[in-house]
Amino acid sequence: MGTPSEEDTMDHHLILGGTGTTGRRVARLLAGRGEPVVTAARTPGPAAPGVAPVHLDWDEPATWDPALAGARSLYVVPPTLVVDVAPPVILMLERARAAGVGRVVVLSARGAERAPGSPLDRAEAATRSSGMPWAVVRPTWFMQNFSEGIHAAEITRGRISAPTGEGAAPFVDAEDIAAVVVALLTGDAPLGRAYDLSGPSALTMAEVADAIAAVAGFPVRHDDADPDAWQVAVREAGVPADYAPLLAMLYGVVRAGADAHLSDGVVAATGRPPGSFAAFAAREAASWRRAA
Ligand SMILES: NC(=O)c1ccc[n+]([C@@H]2O[C@H](COP(=O)([O-])OP(=O)(O)OC[C@H]3O[C@@H](n4cnc5c(N)ncnc54)[C@H](OP(=O)(O)O)[C@@H]3O)[C@@H](O)[C@H]2O)c1
User: What backbone torsions phi and psi does residue 13 show, to the nearest 5 degrees?
Assistant: First the structure.
């Protein structure tokens, strides 16, 4: 752990957030293709075949350059649970360019371009003007929010608490997000554009609950939480106080029915359609059953 060895640092793909929902899938897919990979995180974990871990902390810029050294490409998962991600992403892009990184793919979120001046919009603008070949991926809500993210623990208690009303979202599989990122990092998909990513159909939270219950073998229901009460609950569950209103605002977009449209980025980058919620749920059924 720590600084990767000389051999590891030659011509690798550097994956920030390399132990997270998208990063570790990107790393696994790259390693499966025989591509050299370095995964960065505060607690980067053990090495795996083809994957070298490195310590990198967004809050400690002194840790960035050792990780960037020798990277051919960079996947940027911005600091998580941070409201204004623009300043650190802008600084990371400057450091990456100085280190000679040859291409950069930045994780944003669907709708960022519709919020001019927002942190993700400014991070995207910096990506476009970074001086490196670039791409932006803008996924909608992850299916994995129900298996490893914000709703995973409560699913095992048979509920999904979300202030989304009857609003629907076209949840996207993190496996598809990772496949898009890999296509961009390896040159299989064109750079110089943003890819909006969604799954193949929009589901309400009640439909998500039904789809999970159908495979998990226990009842799951959607609790349509009051937005203010929900913010308090997620803060009590550990979400930072300044980030909870952002999450509630984003779920408000779903509630208003303004996030249900489909996007074609998965097929545009990979040539194949995105996976369905039913396929995702079938993969996760055993782990939901075990955890309940
Ligand atoms: N979930 C959704 O529905 C959704 C939808 C659209 C966009 N997004 C975006 O996706 C991003 C999260 O990506 P993800 O789900 O792939 O990641 P994730 O599962 O939230 O994992 C975060 C990763 O970043 C690392 N990390 C956290 N804080 C760090 C720090 N201070 N310094 C260095 N590394 C740090 C973590 O490892 P350590 O803790 O060991 O450092 C981990 O590897 C968020 O920015 C969110 O805006 C999410």
Answer: -90, 130
Residues with C-beta less than 6 Å from any ligand 1 atom = 17-23, 41-43, 56-59, 77-80, 107, 109, 139, 141-142, 145, 149
Please name every residue paired with 37 in a beta bridge, in sequence order, or none if there are none: 13, 51
Contact at 8 Å (CB) between 167 and 255? yes
* Distance from C-alpha of 206 to C-alpha of 228, rounded to nearest angstrom: 20
Which of 77, 136, 251 maximizes ligand 1 atoms within 8 Å of its Cβ, making it the mutation to test the pocket? 77
Distance 18 CA to ligand 1 centre (A): 9
pTM above 0.90, yes or no: yes
Write the class of the CATH domain 142-173+199-260+271-287: alpha beta
Alpha helices of 79-173 — where are they, by DSSP H? Answer: 86-98, 119-128, 152-155
Report the DSSP beta bridge partners of residue 4.
Answer: none
**In the chain, where the domains are located:** 1-139, 142-173+199-260+271-287
Q: Average pLDDT in the 75-87 region?
A: 97
pLDDT in tens, 3-15: 444 444 458 999 9
Return the CATH number of the domain spanning residue range 1-139: 3.40.50.720
